[in-house]
Amino acid sequence: MAVREAEPVGSLQEVKEAGLDREDLLGIYRHMLITRGIEERGHILYKQGKIPGSFYTGRGNEAAAVGVATAMGPNDVGTPLHRDMGVHVTRGTEPWRIFAQYMGREDGPTRGRDGNVHMAVAELGLHAQVSHLPAMLPVAVGMALAFKIRGDSRVALGWFGDGSAARGDAHEAMNLAGVRQLPMVFVCDNNQWAYSTPTYLSYPVEHIADRAAAYGFEGVVVDGTDVLAVYREAKRAIEKAREGGGPTLLECVTLRMEGHAVHDDAFYVPKEMFEQWAAYDPIERYRTWLHDHADLTDEEEEQILSVVKRLLNDALDRADESPLPDPATLEHGVYASQEDLDTPHHK
Amino acid sequence: MTYIQAISDALRLEMRRDQRVFVLGEDVGVYGGAFKVSLGFQEEFGPWRVIDTPLAETAIVGAATGAALMGMRPVAEMQFADFISCAWDHLVTVAAKQYFRVRTPIPIVVRLPSGGGFSGGPFHSQNPESSFAHIPGLKIACPATPHDAKGLLASAIEDPNPVLFFEHKHLYRRIKGEVPEDRYTVPFGYANVHRPGDDATIVTWGAMVHTATEAADELAKEGFEAEVLDLRTLMPWDKERVLEGVQRCSKVLVLHEDTRTGGFGAEIAATIAEEAFEHLDGPVMRLAAPDTPVPFSPTLEKAFIPQVADVVTALRELAAY
Q1: Are A193 and B82 in contact, with CB atoms under 8 Å apart?
Q2: Which residues on neighbouring strands pair with residue B112, listed in sequence order?
Q3: Is there a contact between A175 and B54 if contact means CB atoms under 8 Å apart?
Q4: Structural contact between residues B21 and B159, judged by C-beta atoms closer than 8 angstroms
Q5: How far apart (Å, rounded) are the C-alpha atoms in residues A172 and A134?
Q6: Among A301, A304, A324, A302, CA closest to A312
């Protein structure tokens, strides 16, 4: 089973066949803008000294994250990582809570117990990552296992990167998912740099998706800057899993357009590489496509931009009003009580 | 009923009463588990509730965590407690911290056949409970009797937190006891007086409960009555009952099969020193395995695991103090 290299998406007709109407297309654009806007404003907050610890962004990964999340069904679940802000935004995490999370405030999804993108809102089907990135892959496989045992028509998505692909967790997770043909999609954000480590020092084959064959499922490589191609391939993989067709490894190739974190100027990434990939900026690329294929007018674009700007400004103000956690609550909530299981998904 | 039958019994009853409970691990299905705890389970519950996994502890514990997040009640089996090292991340990094971070409980049980006494060597004999007792967010049970094994396992499966359930392999078929046929639970955090006495209190758990009892019976012939206090769970542990025993007896021996330095006995001894210092008529004594890997050869292993004679010697020292 050779890896399949996905074609780019062309016409509006093709997009309609993939299940997106014009409203959906504009929604995708809005989500990508919100995603980048949150991270740009976060960067400013960091420089203002309002964000404790470090700060990570997913610049360059917006299409990969939003494209996959748009393809998820309402009851599907996943474990997105730190380049996947677009997944949180698309699933409906409120931006003001994300800013509150950045600043360690009480209204962030982790109430100041954890920082940056180490967050998730379980009600939206998302479960918070840990720093040991590939550790979430076996967890996502367990979600898919639960669906398989119960016969639920749901799919689990587990994210990883070119760096975390090297850890044993990735192998164990894919092997178990393959053996049991679980309703699972492995999404690799291959942004070509694991901190300062280039891909040729991370894996010795052409594509990470080449590995899928070894686990008995399909591997697909897609241009991670093409949001519609990502959407189409993710949709195929998710629906295949839902129908009992087993897992897929979907590799979205992008470039990490900033350093590993805010302290890192990425001096080790060749300048030409940044220039080359800047020409494929996912948002600019999609904006052009919308103008060319979906009759996006300048007025519509202006309106979307101003709505996003207002949303983020309001979100920042609201987050700033959120209190810091009370130190007296530090030792609360280390252990769950029976009442904590009275949530729909634990019943 | 033997200790291992009690574990099997508890698991079967939980699976019958709660469809969400399922078992996963290496060789747990067709083979019934390395120690046969789940023998016959696949016939009764089917292959999707008694799941044979690849040889992959990381995937086993990680998948249990994910399934728990989706509302299941997984019971994962490590073939030997020693292999839990391969799944450290998934217990310590994910399961133990998820509720604290995002308020999503992880109701999983990891069954861990532990302990030595039969030349299992360095990788089939360990008692790694203290490593995990140090991790906030995990709970730990170490039953010593068939009654407690059955009741604690039911409690563990019901518990909304990740629970490590240490089953001492040397008790599996050696220890028998009265066990009610119906389902019952033994709550976490309550010690049990395995043998009464007022002259000293021996604080211990797991297989050492039986070693301590034999030693105490020996000393009773000399008129020295030691209490054997079985903690039953280490996280939470019954601090109040331990302190009560110290206040009443004024002499205390902390005994465990795990190695000495940083063992859970150190925590107990420190707590007694902090909170019951004025009640002590002698130093807090600790008896544990020496700080070496578990050796293979019978002569070495016997020197490693605290024996009845070692406990007798320690008690005599305490008595004489």
Answers
A1: no
A2: B166
A3: yes
A4: no
A5: 10
A6: A304
Beta carbons of B48 and A77 less than 8 Å apart: no
- Residue pLDDT, tens place only, A72-126: 999 999 999 999 999 999 999 999 999 999 999 999 999 999 999 999 999 999 9
Nearest to B168 by CA among B135, B208, B134: B208
Going by C-alpha positions, the residue among B228, B261, B256 that lies closest to residue B242 is: B228
Residues 6+ apart with CB under 8 A from B183: B10, B13, B14, B17, B154
Strands A197-198 and A156-161: unpaired
Chain A residue numbers touching B107 (CB-CB < 8 A): 336, 341, 346
What residues of chain B lie within 8 A of the CB of A138, using their CB?
A: 58-59, 61-63, 65-66, 90
The residue ranges of chain A whose pLDDT is under 50 are none
Which residues in chain A belong to E strands, given as ranges? 4-5, 77-79, 156-161, 184-190, 193-194, 197-198, 218-223, 248-253
Pick the closest to residue B61 from B92, B37, B82 (CA basis).
B92
Q: Which two tokens stand for residue A270?
A: 């060749």
Amino acid B215: pLDDT: 98
Residues 6+ apart with CB under 8 A from A19: A235
- Pairing mode, strands B200-204 and B163-168: unpaired
Q: pTM for the full model?
A: 0.97
How far A292 CA lies from chain B's nearest CA (Å)?
43
Say how far apart CA A15 and CA A111 lie, in whole Å: 40
User: H-helix or E-strand containing B230?
Assistant: strand B226-230
